[in-house]
């Protein structure tokens, strides 16, 4: 027979998992939590939780998602003493360009530059970076070009640095099929279609990228509001067109793009993550492990986890961030 102590020990982990699962389906951050700060060319919308003197952690969302991917992860990290910053990327949520004349450029290095500008505005010298999809690519770029600003890295799908030349090369048919929307965005019809059906399009991507995640309408609708940003369509099209070499980047990023085209190693302590049911295009872990030359670990999240681990497996994602910060 089990005594009360034994039963408590058995139930506690289950209870914690249930709490995390329930939180993952929560409505997201309260709008009152969102702050604005001028940083670089943007007025950045962001949530900040935790003590001001805590180890800074920057959580970076993907496309077509938003900061609510971290609505469970961020409070938990804050409880553990971290200063957590969750920004809306350019073209999402309440983030806005300060000038109407600034190019609506979705070039990946521009998004990384935005993040460094945000750190400067918040007087953060160094932070742990963690992200998925566009957010992981942003974090990778920051770590490769500015390792002194990145204490540690958590990157879903690993090494996502690329170049326009690489983007022009055909992939195996199965991989090309997964990238169908990238080719769609290269056409006038795709531009019009995404503008006309943004929310339906985003829901389809969520379903394709995470086939095992049964997210609620409330969860999706909460994030979908962020796609109503007036620059969202332009930034999305720019990002995917730039990757295929169909659109030029800004000249001020040319030197950084040249460095990134050489596919630089990442030297900061890193944990890479992959879900066991990621329906989005992603490289195999063994293909990029050698690109991480510092302390390194790879983790596979099991349990039908797709492309958005912080929202699908928040407990495991929190642990990865905490562990990376201590590597």
The helix count comes to: 15
Structural class estimated from helices and strands: alpha/beta
Low-confidence stretches: 1-24
CATH class: Alpha Beta
How many domains comprise the coordinates? Answer: 1
Query: Cα distance, first to last residue?
Result: 41 Å
Using the alpha-carbon principal axes, give the shape.
Answer: globular
The share of residues in extended strands comes to: 15-25%
What CATH architecture label applies? 3-Layer(aba) Sandwich
Element-by-element helix/strand order? HEEEHEEHEHEHHHHHHHHEHEHH
**CATH level-4 homologous superfamily:** Alpha/Beta hydrolase fold, catalytic domain
CATH topology: Rossmann fold
What's the average pLDDT?
Answer: 92
Strands, count:
9
Helix content bin = 40-55%
What about the largest sheet? 9 strands, mixed
Rg value: 19 Å
Task: List the topology elements.
Elements: H1 4-24, E1 34-39, E2 42-49, E3 56-60, H2 73-79, E4 83-87, E5 96-97, H3 108-121, E6 127-131, H4 134-145, E7 150-156, H5 164-167, H6 173-178, H7 180-184, H8 188-196, H9 198-209, H10 217-224, H11 232-243, H12 254-261, E8 270-275, H13 285-288, E9 296-301, H14 309-312, H15 314-325
């Amino acid at each position: 027979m089990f005594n009360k102590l034994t039963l408590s020990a058995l139930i506690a982990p289950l209870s914690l998992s249930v709490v995390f699962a329930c939180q993952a389906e929560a409505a997201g951050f309260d709008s009152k939590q969102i702050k604005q700060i001028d940083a670089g060319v943007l007025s950045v919308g962001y949530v900040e939780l935790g003590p001001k003197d805590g180890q800074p952690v920057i959580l970076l969302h993907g496309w077509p998602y938003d900061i609510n991917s971290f609505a469970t992860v961020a409070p938990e990290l804050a409880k553990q003493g971290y200063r957590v910053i969750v920004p809306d990327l350019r073209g999402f949520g309440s983030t806005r360009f300060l000038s109407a004349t600034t190019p609506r450029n979705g070039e990946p290095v521009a998004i990384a530059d935005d993040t460094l500008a945000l750190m400067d505005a918040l007087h953060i010298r160094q932070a742990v970076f963690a992200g998925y999809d566009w957010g992981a690519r942003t974090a990778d770029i920051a770590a490769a070009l500015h390792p002194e600003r990145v204490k540690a890295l958590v990157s879903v799908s690993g090494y996502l640095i690329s170049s326009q030349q690489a983007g022009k090369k055909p992939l195996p048919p199965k991989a090309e099929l997964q990238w169908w929307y990238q080719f769609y965005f290269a056409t006038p019809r795709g531009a019009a279609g995404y503008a006309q059906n943004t929310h339906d399009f985003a829901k389809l991507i969520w379903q394709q990228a995470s086939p095992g995640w049964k997210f609620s309408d409330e969860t999706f609708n909460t994030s979908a509001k962020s796609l109503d940003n007036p620059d969202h369509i332009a930034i999305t099209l720019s990002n995917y067109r730039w990757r295929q070499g169909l659109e030029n980047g800004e000249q001020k990023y040319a030197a950084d793009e040249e460095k990134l085209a050489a596919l630089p190693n990442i030297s900061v302590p890193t944990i890479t993550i992959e879900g066991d049911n990621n329906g989005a295009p992603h490289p195999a872990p063994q293909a990029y492990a050698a690109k991480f030359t510092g302390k390194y670990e790879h983790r596979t999240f099991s349990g039908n986890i797709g492309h958005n681990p912080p929202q699908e497996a928040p407990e495991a994602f929190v642990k990865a961030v905490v562990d990376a910060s201590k590597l």
